[in-house]
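Predict the 3D structure for this chain.
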Amino acid sequence: MKKLTMTLAAAAVCAAAASAQPQLRPDNIDEVLAAMSLEEKAVLLVGGGNRTFGAGENGIIGSTDNMVPGAAGTTVSIPRLGIPATVLTDGPAGVRISPTRKNDEHTYYATGFPVGTALASTWNTELVEEVGRAMGNEVLEYGCDVLLAPGMNIHRSPLCGRNFEYYSEDPVVTGFIAAAFVNGIQSNGVGTSLKHYAANSQETNRMEVDEIVGPRAMREIYLKGFEIAVKDAKPWTVMSSYNRLNGPYTQEDRDLLTTVLRDEWGFDGIVMSDWTGPRHTDAQVHAGNDLMEPGFAAQAEEIVAKVKSGELSEADVDTSVRRMLQYLVKTPHYKGYKYSNTPDLKAHAAVTRQSATEGMVLLKNEDHTLPLKGVNEIALFGITSYDFIAGGTGSGDVNKPYVVDLMEGLDNAGLKVTDDMKNMYVAYRTFKEAEGAANHSSQGWGKAMLPELAVSRRAIDHQAEIADIAVLTLGRQAGEGHDRLIDNDFNLSAVERQLLDDVADAFHARGKRVVVIINTGAVIETASWKNKADAILLAWQPGQEGGNSVADVLTGKENPSGKLTMTWPMSAIDHPSSLNFPIGVSGSKDFFGRRHDVKNYDYTLHSEGINVGYRYFDTAGKEVSYPFGYGLSYTTFAYSKPTVKATKDGFEATVTVTNTGSVAGKDAVQLYVTAPASDIEKPARELKAFAKTRKLAPGESQTLTFRVDNYSLASYHESNHSWVADKGVYNVQFGASVADLRAAAKYTLGNTLTWETNDIFHPSREL
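Done. Predicted structure below.
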């Protein structure tokens, strides 16, 4: 087949001699579609990385330099029809573009916002929407059209390498936090892309692994968050994931991309592929995957060839092209927006500083160790205290203008760090950076974590003599392409454990306290060592203002109000998914790329079904280190006056929250529901809604309202492939966490309600 460049050139010549061509408008999409050649339709469905349009030598990130350098990808332009190219940019924690440009003295840094786990832990949809508005402004002002975010995959295992980008083990938290994020970003007139749809539960062999998931778990756990976000926020795009799902690639799964996403949920945007090479392009188009990214000429050629051979219906092509045209007319590039390249980074830094504090989780605070009082000098331990981790690696990384480390944050707050610790760690960091140890992560994107420094007991004893308190930071880094390990990652390393033991022994022997800061994007083991610390603050990866944000909480300038959106288990293997997760599994491809059918590499069984996170731990009565929804405050709250009132399609619940302490603060209240007995097994309770108070002064109260419809009460019955809300009494519980339920009321459903779905998601292996 002739190259499409030649075909398009010929088309352009013909067009010049022809009468005026229609120019794309929102009201003439069908006319433009009718005027397009088959070749033009094909290239519109293939990203701008393809060589047909000369956007780059390879269909990879970096081929966007002629538009926005460092952006992830583009769509193609067809000038004769007024069809512009548009720009797609990573990612979930901020706009990922190149900070420098050839022959340009200016810099184009973007704000590094808190990672997904930090944002979700605020339990504050209004705040998340505010963060989205700030981030969306940078998308707009840097000349981009779509932010490839939010990441919405479920924390099936604490070892997934990209959990920092994702929100929770619970789909309700995931869905409503994502919806708020999308609404904030899209308020700027730019788009978002929900990802990775669906069941992208591991990074090991993520391009090929077949995730085997049963219908109930698929519907209740892995799709429910996407369903909520699609219905509540109407995202412009959805990104299909790399992995296979019960056999086919998700990008080629019509049941997933059309039957569920569009026919059942009403999604009316475009689906784009995650960034991969050519697969079966005709199958992708037929499935409803409208845009192939980053784009290869071979994909456009395949579309043309398969239509001409009859293997692909041109009607399927037209359906995707129409969606692409509907997308294009919404974009800033179509509207000719004159972007500034100068978003207000100073204002956005203030947003990230404040939002990060609200997501921090106070895990322990014995005898009011925090906020710090009467502290003049701090012994600051841990290399990440001096090399703070603002965010994860990979596409979730951001080229930030700076990162405030904890040493700097404490100094900005007027707290002195002992000189000898400062000098020792700064010298160590400088030495390691000179070696190149911190230049890149193992994935090549983002900053790696420096190895922890062993400190002699003699030096620690000296610090215990001269300092008022010890602060020790434990840091973790993770990202794309690799899952986490249990040893020296989920669990503390031997050096970290010895450091913590020695610091605790030395300071406690002198009647002084120890504070541990956890600087991580995801869960680590805490059960074996938390008794060593007087206070533990989970700072997450809080963005570029991280050190200032932590200092704001340590000093009491901000009262922590974050709560966990995932269970912190006693050990990683306590999760049922650990039996079917690639812990230590190596590759299995031979020279010819043949699959060897290795469990947890070539395929992964979701045999635990819906027993993910607290649904398992709470129902089984399994001991955890910290339960789902847990988080302390510098004040206390009481719940009273619980009510439940039936509405036409569900119920409205209220509870009054009173600040019973002596410090102003916010509280996140979780509404759990225990369903009546049924012919299928159900969890002890499930989260159905949540709300957060405003900042309440001591003695002040606020009544929170929760609305839950009957559909949200339903469980998925595989026997008749239907959602079913059983008649009977539903126990409605208001909790400070799943293990701390403080008020209750009841809702009675008089008749069983059923919502039928399509019979799909058949596991390709026995679960």
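Confidence is low (pLDDT under 50) at residues 5-18, 51-62, 440-444.
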